[in-house]
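batch job 7 of whatever, protein = Peptidyl-prolyl cis-trans isomerase
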Amino acid sequence: MGCSATLLPSPPPHLHRPPTFKPLLNRRSLLFLSTTLSFPATTISTSSATPPPPKPDTTITERVYLDFSICPNYFTNRTLGDDLSNCSDSEPIGRLVLGLYGNLVPITVSNFKAMCTGTSGSTYKGTLVQKIFPGQFFMAGRQGRRDKGEVKPPLELIRNTETIESKAFILEHSRGGIVSLPLSENDDDDDLKLNPKYHNVEFLITTGPGPAPQLDSKNIVFGTVLEGMDIVTTIAAIPTYKPSENIRQYNGFAELLGDGRAKTARAIWNKPQKTVYISDCGELKVAKPTLSPSLP
């Protein structure tokens, strides 16, 4: 009896495929992979970055001097006479040598120089230091009556268009010895400013020892003290009239009510209690007028 083999039917083709495993990636696995796999560093191109703005040109192009003196007789409301003729026995304080930034603010520098040399039709010579703010700055060159030690309005100056140019306000009052054209601190009478021929020639010099940030972005820095910071310190130490807190509050209340006498009374605040004035001024001629920038 023969044997016969029974052939089983072959399984379907899909059952011969190897099993497929799906790896389970949990949070810990992903953290492990992120720390072990290295990726090429990304280089950021700076070719399209905006270049930094150029630094202000504080090259010194001009030099002028101001000589200061003290009148032994203190004048408050009395007239000083023409060119301080009533102050015959003056006591010299010393000389300031100022370097001016003619490349940065040429009109401001030209006008200031013209006031020092007298080519403007007026001069700082024989005029008073009007205000002293201890630890901050002192002011001079106020326009008004010549017999009161104020500057006669100049007639031969260029109209200063730099007062509305943003680049003229870049430099800061970062230390003592900064020379600045005061706009926010200007002490000239309002009636005088309404004159179409009016020119702002009042100036201030910071006294230090620290900066005066309240002056920044409001007044035009146009020079620096090259020689004579000891003279600046001497002027800054002169006593001034300081009203009491009660007087200040009363004055502010009177001004709020529209009392015009409030401004008149405030005019004597911070005035020096000695008659400090500019006894001479002019331009210094040097063989090499330009100096390297003195401010950062």
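notes: The longest strand covers residues 62-71.
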